[in-house]
Structures
1.
Amino acid sequence: MGCSGGFQSLFPLTHMNRHNNKQAGKTKQKPNHRKKEPMQTKQSVINLNIRATVIAAFGVLLMVLGVSETAQAQSSQSTPLVFQAAGPDATAIQGAVDAFRAALGDNNLNNPGPLQKGRREINWDGGNPNLMDTTPPVNPFLVFLNTRGSQYKTPGLGLSQAPPAGGLQGGLAVLFGNPNYAKIFRTFSRSRLFTPVGSNITEASFSIPGTNGNAPATVRGFGVVFTDVDQPDGAVPSAVASNHKPSTFVEYFGKNGRLLFSSSVAASPGDGNLSFFGIKFDDARIASVRITSGNVAPGPNDDRQHDIVMMDDFIYGEPQILH
Ligand SMILES: [Ca+2]
Ligand SMILES: [Ca+2]
């Protein structure tokens, strides 16, 4: 495999960094071995030669990272298509999200499986953009286990759906006891986001919809919308000495626990920015996904040391029976 070929660039303002052929053939497989602290270990598997490009357009700064320098396949098998974008608002990532959706196929909603084609989506909004409830952290999070064939776990306390602020429970600002959280996150789909509590790790696994988790499954693609990914480089736009360490990662594992692919997620300056990262293989080889959202569990102020990140829409391929 190599980083060339099979790559699809879908930035709103496209920028491709130079391809680094040294990545080709480099494999660092970690069979059945999941690091408990990926923030320290990811540096060993992700190309550190990160080069951000800032594009100024009509006064709006939009920062994107070339995927060839932020993502690399860990498998000797084929390289997936990569879809990613980052920018100040939903418009900046809409094209990449829609292209990812189109690549996976039609939305199968809550239809029971097994189905051969299509995709599933979770927007955490309860089917109503005016719903502002904050759900208490639960672990595992099984709300969509039966209807959409995915479940989520965290090494922390649990996982919650919440608006940035408002509603009876006060949203993220109250959930994490930090009033600043009311202002620094933006939804891609109104009005709620998804987050681990007591951790920055979310682990997804899959099953055939309609089986209540009893038929384990794999998917061919998985993508996540993030909000307020600041690092690298976006933490303090005016700072000369910026932080070059990525805060947010997505790792994809096969059925044997082997790491298939890993990437950091592109950042964008300012508060409430949105990022999208998704990959699609030709076949359903992804058995689980480990998402590191931010470099620390939510709670502290979002600053140069702490990049707090929330998640919005999850989009993934139709779960297929595990072989
Ligand atoms: Ca949402
Ligand atoms: Ca942040």
2.
Amino acid sequence: MVTPLWFEFACPRHGGPAHVRIHEAAHAVLAVAFGFVFENVVVHNDPEDRPAPGSGVYGGGVDYGTLDRRARFSRDKPRDALMMYCAGASAEHHFFGDTLPESFDGDLTAWKSDLGLFEGQTEESYRELIGESQKDTLRATFGLIVTHESAIRAVADTLKLAPSGALTFDEVHSIVAATPTGSIER
Ligand SMILES: [Zn+2]
């Protein structure tokens, strides 16, 4: 159970909500860049709000419509999907130098769950699926965070001001398109 107090002090330096905004904005921006259409990205600026489902981090999440739709992204493009998931913790690290507890593990678990992977994943089985090492995928993810830095910051700032705390796919798409590095580079 996550209490509002825990959430606010999850990171004493930056506060939980600031982390969640960057984390969820990064998922949303990379989803747009990869063409993964979602319903909404939402953050609960008031930590008393309930945690959103489908997120490794409490206090927000990306609503992909259905779990099946989400899993289809991962099955069709496992590497892109993994980068989209890892973007949350990677962006926290990029912007703040730290991450919320379990920020990365929660997202990795979502990806594994989409693909029906649980225990026993090895570096070899990963390479067989993705065609490169996990470290290379993470390195590429950090590169995408740098490329999309302005868009991620802009989406996070807009989420903070949005009365509902939510943005649709189209709204995020407009923000990405309006930033200078909004196109995908890999
Ligand atoms: Zn922090």
